[in-house]
Amino acid sequence: MKGNFYDSERVALFIDGANLYSAARSLGFDIDYRRLLKVFREKGRLVRAYYYTALIEDQEYSPIRPLIDWLDYNGYTMVTKPTKEFTDAMGRRKIKGNMDIELAIDVLEMAEHLDHVILFSGDGDFRRLVEAVQRRGLRVSVVSTIKSSPPMVADELRRQADDFIELSELAPLIARNPSERPQRPATAEPDDAPAEHLMRSSA
Hints:
With 203 residues, this protein is α/β, with parallel strands linked by helices. It has helices at 17-26, 33-41, 65-73, 100-110, 127-135, 155-160, 167-174, 193-202; strands spanning 10-16, 45-55, 77-82, 84-87, 93-96, 116-120, 139-144, 163-166. It has a single domain (10-202), classed as 3-Layer(aba) Sandwich (Rossmann fold), CATH 3.40.50.
């Protein structure tokens, strides 16, 4: 995996759940979040791993709930909020579940306790956040992909980051082995498509 890491660095992961899910799916693999945590624990002093996702309210069963519960018990700090339903100008029902503000606030609040921020998102809206964190003396690596069609990472975000980690090159280290028997709920992701795609398309 490309990217500069130092053993003494205080590192935190900030995972835009819907964005990372879409990027991995565009590359044709599912993420094993246990392996992902292990990879970055070996790269430095992992302070925190945040995972951000919106939840659809009033559903008897949310397909992403097993994954959220597993992450919550296995080293991740979960940040969730309910989606908001609205009607657009054409009278179509839309659901909005954008977690950008929550992620940005957490990065800024954690900055004084960190040396290196790992941002799992390709969203160009985060460029100013990356710039602000860099002014505080932190390094920022962005994890996304340019191998998908279209690329999942905004060019301005990629240019602003200190390092860009191509998700397809990270895949051998963090992909779930398809030959393994699925370990629900740890690998609940294949069933998360309805919820995560809904959030990504409406964010």
